Amino acid sequence: MNPVRLGIIGMGAIGRFHAKSVLEQHVPACELKAVCGPRLESLQDYQPLALFTDGMELIRSGLVDAVLIATPHPLHVPYALAALERGMHVLIEKPVAASKADAERLLDAFQAAKLRYPGAVCAGMLQMRTEPRYQKIKELIRIELGSLVRLNWINTDWFRTEAYYSSSAWRATWKGEGGGILINQCLHNLDMLQWLCGMPVKVNGFCQLGRFHRIEVEDSVTAYFEWANGMTGTYISSSGEAPGTNRLEIVGTRGSLVLEKDQIRLTRLATEATQFSKDSPTGFALPEFTVTELPLENADLPHALILRNFIGAIRDGESPIAPIKECIHSVELVNAILFSSLLGESLYLPLDGAVWEKKLQDLVAQSTLKKEVVPPSEPATVTFRR
Questions:
Q1: How many other C-beta atoms are found inside a 10 Å radius of the C-beta of residue 99?
Q2: Containing H/E element for 203?
Q3: Domains in the chain, please, with CATH?
């Protein structure tokens, strides 16, 4: 079977990161054939690959079987729709869309494409699903923790400078991103939250717009969640706290776990907490418990693992790690947290995507931001947080 011919649309820092991964042969059976960026002169290092400044031209070129879309967020869905219409396979950088409504349109188009092209694949670059720490936590939730009671995630190690926000016209704007830290940095963490615990049924968002930076979107967030089984949770994030904290705690009736600094601390109860509470004759007793430290290794090239899985889905029918129907969930949480904050009230899920889309369009239309773009003094690099 011939290698899958891949084109990358969007050659900023993350697009170049993916191109390097393929060119260095970290993705077997995949051949990079074409790249697309807004300025031809910035792509000269990729010769003799086909070079494009228009993503639609790349899609129509016939040179590729699949595209990886790594453009600013509002362009993800238009390029994906065009590629699906031509029977191509699509992998989309996070977020798959800036709004739930747009993500739903993408899912509808993919389902229609599968009727015409039964082997079509459409997935998202949600690489944290490949990380050993979260795979281990998913297993521990299933076999160790009992019924889930509470989740707390302090995820404030996303510090960004003014230079970061001024480096691109689209960054941290309603029009260019559809939000701020939630849609850009936190989307992976919110994907993990729902991947591990399922989707909540109620959201309260408290977002500060431009709290730490000269931007019009949120850079400080506290969110509260409720699940159908009575579980509650909080998620806190910021791009203005240095150096920040990344600590995830999940509590169940049979134990709890804490993920921090590449280590899981698992607490196991000898007796389920609710049963011990009923049976204990004294008021201040605790069930017996043990604590185990589980050191973890980082994932081996997590982005490449998603790409390998994408190629395997095309060639061998593997199940995508992050199928497009699941990618919608993190977008919905992002939209719901922000919408709840702007409304000043709780929201019940599922979110009406069309209502948030209308609100986002209003925010774009009412924007008065005059952004001065200052090109970065050094090439952009990709920094990942877990």
A1: 28
A2: strand 202-209
A3: 4-126+301-321 (3.40.50.720), 128-300+330-366 (3.30.360.10)
Residue 370 φ/ψ region, left for φ over 0, alpha for ψ in the -120 to 50 degree band, beta for the rest: beta
Distance (Å, whole) CA 205 – CA 225: 9
216-242 mean pLDDT: 98
pLDDT over threshold 90, residue 294: yes
Question: What's the pLDDT band for 369 if we cut at 50, 70, 90?
Answer: confident
Beta strands 66-69; 289-295: pairing state: unpaired
Report how far Cα 132 is from the mean position of its chain's Cα atoms. 17
Amino acid residing at 280: S
Over residues 60-71, mean pLDDT: 98
Measuring CA to CA, which residue among 74, 52, 266, 37 is closest to residue 177?
74
Contact call for residues 47 and 66 (beta carbons, < 8 A): no
Show the tokens assigned to 369: 């931001």
Name the pTM for this structure. Answer: 0.95
Query: Does the structure show a pLDDT above 90 at 382?
Result: no
